[in-house]
């Protein structure tokens, strides 16, 4: 019988049959592995006018040709020849939870290695390596990282789209007979085409994501028996990957998981590398951008830090404007020397003041970019990625530095290292504010792929030199949120839009693949700087409180009443963040009539946040039925705390008042079956409910 290889994570199982010639056949992909059986040895037959010997179409990384007529996951050629690949002689190498499948195509003179890993979190990951075993160059046009199988029948795909300031908008569509393709050519993860999908068939639901920050492809192809293959991988520019004899291409890593909790567990337990080996409680952060922009005045910044410490803020991040002659966004990117006009004694007095208050100090960099109006560009215009003879296209008056050149990477490392080595910096906000266009080196050849890997290398180098420093990934907000970036960073700036109404949908979408403690969410000023909307401090705070809480305003501009109220929400965050950020505790519900619900639950405490976006259409809201992952704790409960003290209800009954005051106890199972009859909130308002079990009652039934 053929050799069967099983990759089983406990939550998902991938079962493969290794043929003598051809790609590994996917026997099953789901919750249970297969057992060896003679059924798997029966050859299939095709239509009368099909191939005399039917070629399996549901395989890992189909290569095209030789009887396979679907979308090839691997493609290339050697000067127009060797355009068909057919691997054979498969071997299996196992090392713990990792399995490597290797094969050779002796005709095309190619080698392949597919690395499959069963993760403790329940995820299965896959990556592909293609090697040139010939004596001439081989142009690789396509090499997907992974292929996953979807059962036959109706299939719905949930993808994410958006723009700057409105990322992670979920879209659902029913797949047809054709091939579904999503491609991003922006040179970064992008705001509009995130490499993340959830697939739902009649019998199975699972998610997939690609751990890569550059150009990508995600393809869902219908095979000849009605099933579908989901492919994920890097998207190459023409001629971008040419393998010299003996060279190899290694794909990014793709991941598949059964649900959000498994993806969250993977990020927490394996992907994110924390200083000291473990995440500390996420500090409340003050970011200076919206409170100051480019107006840096030492006395004011010190006073802001003092005011921030007084209300419980724990990290002070100095944003853009501290270097070169950076008075606006048209100049000085690349000139990473402290602006002596604003800081005549350097940054140290500010850093010492912040750390003397017991806060961490963080600082903003945008290493990958350069302004044409800068000392760096004046000295090294050839350091920018451009194509000779083509217009130099600016975006936000920026060009992209060629980090693949050692002298450029060394220059940037030296500048960043100097700031970190000479100051007590514990945090970097690493920004990237433009897409890549016609990104080529001095030889005129595309370098988007190499540029992405060079960014990773620079991040890795900085982290190795300063292992205690955390990094936030920002790219015009949410433009670089993926598992490639998260492998090297500890927080993402979810969106440049801090409007709480917009954040309801942004954070709900981002939470599908990223745990809440990684998602930066800030309380900003009213009116909001991006949309002009006015919101209560309660609404702004409650929308942000379950994530990595921050403040994005000048605390000196708060009234005494606002300062006292903000202090309450910061204290509440510190008291509850251990639950909000606990493994497996968070939950979220689908919006209903504009009402968003999310929170976290344990056997000792349940926190439910209810936010009303637009005005409800219904005469009254449906009772809030808590999900199974919350009601599983059982027992009698009551509402112990409500924030704000006076929620903005349209109308409230005496019974609802008693419920919210804690005078009514209830079975948690009833909160799942019948639901909590909460009052209707006014549009753009929210409340937080803390539920506690009645002592002595059954709490695990």
From TrEMBL:
Coiled coil region boundaries: none
Keyword Hydrolase: yes
E.C. number: 3.2.1.22
Residue intervals passing through the bilayer: none
PROSITE patterns the record matches: ALPHA_GALACTOSIDASE (PS00512)
Catalytic activity annotation: Hydrolysis of terminal, non-reducing alpha-D-galactose residues in alpha-D-galactosides, including galactose oligosaccharides, galactomannans and galactolipids
Top-level taxonomic group: Bacteria
Top-rank EC class of the record's enzyme: hydrolase
GO molecular function, one term: alpha-galactosidase activity
CDD domains on file: GH36
Gene3D superfamilies: Aldolase class I, alpha-galactosidase from lactobacil brevis
Statement: the UniProt record of this protein carries the keyword Hydrolase: yes
PANTHER family the record matches: ALPHA-GALACTOSIDASE C-RELATED (PTHR43053:SF3), GLYCOSIDASE FAMILY 31 (PTHR43053)
Protein known as: alpha-galactosidase
Organism field: Peteryoungia ipomoeae
């Amino acid at each position: 019988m053929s050799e069967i290889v099983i990759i089983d994570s406990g939550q998902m199982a991938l079962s493969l049959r290794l043929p003598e010639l051809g790609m590994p056949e996917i026997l099953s992909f789901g919750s249970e592995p297969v057992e060896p059986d003679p059924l798997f040895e029966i050859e299939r037959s095709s239509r009368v006018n099909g191939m005399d010997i039917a070629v399996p179409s549901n395989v890992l990384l189909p290569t095209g040709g030789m009887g396979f007529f679907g979308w090839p996951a691997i493609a290339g050629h050697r000067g127009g020849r060797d355009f068909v690949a057919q691997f054979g002689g498969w071997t299996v190498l196992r090392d713990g939870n990792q399995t490597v499948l290797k094969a050779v195509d002796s005709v095309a003179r190619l080698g392949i290695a597919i690395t499959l890993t069963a993760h403790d979190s329940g995820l299965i990951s896959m990556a592909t390596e293609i090697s040139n075993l010939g004596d001439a160059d081989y142009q690789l046009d396509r090499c997907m990282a992974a292929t996953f199988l979807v059962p036959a029948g109706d299939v719905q795909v949930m993808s994410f789209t958006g723009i700057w300031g409105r990322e992670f908008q979920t879209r659902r569509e029913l797949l047809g007979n054709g091939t579904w393709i999503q491609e991003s050519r922006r040179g970064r993860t992008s705001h509009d085409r995130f490499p993340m999908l959830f697939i739902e068939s009649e019998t199975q639901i699972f998610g997939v994501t690609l751990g890569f920050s550059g150009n990508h492809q995600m393809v869902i192809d219908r095979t000849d028996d009605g099933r579908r293959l989901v492919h994920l991988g890097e998207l190459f520019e023409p001629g971008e990957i040419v393998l010299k004899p003996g060279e190899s291409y290694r794909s990014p890593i793709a991941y598949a998981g059964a649900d959000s909790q498994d993806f969250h567990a993977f990020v927490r337990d394996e992907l994110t590398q924390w200083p000291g080996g473990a995440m500390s409680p996420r500090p409340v952060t003050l970011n200076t951008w919206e409170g100051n922009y480019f107006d840096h005045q030492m006395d004011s910044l010190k006073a802001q830090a003092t005011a921030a410490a007084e209300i419980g803020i724990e990290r002070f991040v100095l944003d853009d404007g501290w270097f070169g002659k950076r008075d606006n966004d048209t100049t000085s990117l690349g000139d990473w020397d402290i602006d002596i006009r604003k800081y005549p004694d350097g940054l140290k007095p500010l850093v010492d003041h912040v750390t003397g208050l017991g806060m961490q100090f963080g600082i903003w960099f945008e290493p990958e970019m350069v302004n044409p109006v800068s000392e760096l560009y004046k000295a090294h215009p050839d350091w920018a990625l451009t194509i000779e003879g083509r217009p130099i296209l600016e975006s936000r008056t920026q060009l992209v530095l060629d980090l693949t050149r050692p002298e450029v990477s060394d220059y940037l490392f030296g500048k960043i290292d100097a700031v970190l080595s000479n100051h007590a910096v514990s945090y970097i906000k690493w920004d990237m504010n433009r897409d890549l266009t016609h990104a080529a080196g001095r030889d005129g050849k595309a370098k988007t792929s190499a540029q992405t890997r060079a960014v990773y290398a620079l991040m890795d180098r900085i982290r190795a030199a300063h292992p205690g420093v955390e990094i936030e990934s920002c790219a015009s907000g949410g433009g670089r949120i993926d598992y490639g970036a998260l492998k090297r960073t500890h927080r993402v700036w979810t969106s440049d839009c801090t409007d709480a109404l917009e954040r309801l949908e942004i954070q709900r979408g981002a939470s599908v693949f990223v745990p809440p403690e990684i998602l930066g969410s800030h309380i900003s000023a009213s009116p909001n700087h991006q949309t002009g909307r006015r919101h209560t401090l309660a609404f702004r705070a409650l929308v942000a409180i379950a994530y990595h809480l921050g403040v994005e305003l000048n605390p000196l501009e708060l009234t005494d009443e606002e300062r006292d109220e903000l202090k309450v929400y910061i204290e509440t965050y510190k008291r509850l963040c251990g639950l909000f950020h606990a493994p497996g505790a968070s939950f979220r519900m689908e919006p209903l009539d504009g009402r968003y619900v999310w929170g976290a639950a344990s056997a000792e405490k349940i926190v439910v946040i209810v936010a009303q976006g637009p005005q409800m259409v219904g005469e009254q809201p449906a009772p809030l039925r808590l999900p199974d992952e919350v009601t599983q704790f059982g027992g009698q409960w009551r509402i112990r705390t409500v924030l704000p003290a006076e929620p903005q209800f349209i109308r409230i009954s005496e019974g609802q008042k008693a419920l919210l005051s804690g005078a009514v106890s209830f079975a948690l199972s009833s909160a799942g079956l019948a639901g909590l009859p909460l009052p209707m909130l006014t549009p753009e308002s929210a409340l937080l409910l803390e539920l506690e079990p009645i002592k002595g009652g059954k709490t695990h039934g």
